[in-house]
Amino acid sequence: MRLLKRHRSLVLGLSGLAGFLAVWELATATLRLVDPLFLSAPSVILSEFGSLLRSSELNPHLWASLKEFSVALALAIVAGVPLGLLLGRLTILEELLDPFIMAFYSMPKVALLPLFLVWFGIGFTSIFTLVFVMAVFPIIINCLAGAKTVNPALVEAARVFGAGEKDIFVLVVWPSTLPLILTGIRLGLGAALIGVVVAEFYIGNSGLGYVLVEAGATFRTPKIFVVVTLLMAAAIVLSKWLEWIERRLAPWKYR
Fold it and tell me: How far apart are the C-alpha atoms of 8 and 2, rounded to whole Å?
């Protein structure tokens, strides 16, 4: 009973998922209330996933999407976090760059894809650039907001005790902004996944987005569901992983 209470949310979530899959299987495979062309049964999707695993058909596409996603997101974090914190600490720099940041943050960045295609051609560079642009601005905005929320009294108290700018950043600014930094990375992660799939839709010759287009064109509904499920699972796992990191690095947020 104690174990059940401790993992209550996990048990309830898995129970809800199991019930949903049972109803889905009953409606599609048993009662055949929906045409399989429009909605595949979970058992059929699982069988298709097993077939794709055995044939290794998805392996090169998974690797291509993973490479585009991980490289772009890593560089977005490396560029976005310091820039956002710097903008939050330097008012003049923020006022200078704010129109450009808000313009790029607000606009539908997919509209830049034809321009990237002209500049870089079809392939990795164009896809990487779009994913980077989609991921970096949520990170910058959240880091900027985090730096703005630092209590000035804490900064002044650190200065009174002889702390320099480096000490203030390490001891005051960084701990105060860490939760918002990690939130920005989680938002950037979701945007990066969207960017990978959308870019591969239009200009990719490999990757999971390319597989989705190909499966849709050949009416392979189970294959579409396999790829969509993989993307959903990747998003959930990565988000939970970042949440776990956040609980370790910023435990005070959850107290």
Answer: 10
How far apart are alpha carbons 206 and 200 in whole angstroms?
Answer: 7
pLDDT tens across 91-115, in order?
788 778 888 888 888 888 888 888 8
Q: Which two tokens stand for residue 225?
A: 């569901």
End-to-end CA distance of the chain: 24
- pTM equals 0.82
Print the SS3 string covering 209-254: HHHHHHHHHCCCHHHHHHHHHHHHHHHHHHHHHHHHHHHHHCHHHH
Q: What's the rounded Cα separation, in Å, for the pair 65 and 75?
A: 16
Residue given tokens 């899959």 in the structure block: 21
| Rounded Cα gap, residues 187 and 238, in angstroms | 11
User: Phi and psi of 241, rounded to 5°?
Assistant: -65, -45
37: Cα within 13 Å, side-chain hemisphere: 3
Only one residue has tokens 């991921």, namely 135
C-alpha–C-alpha distance, residues 253 and 149, integer Å: 14
Rounded to an integer, the average pLDDT of 223-242 is 87
Residue 9 carries which DSSP code? Answer: H
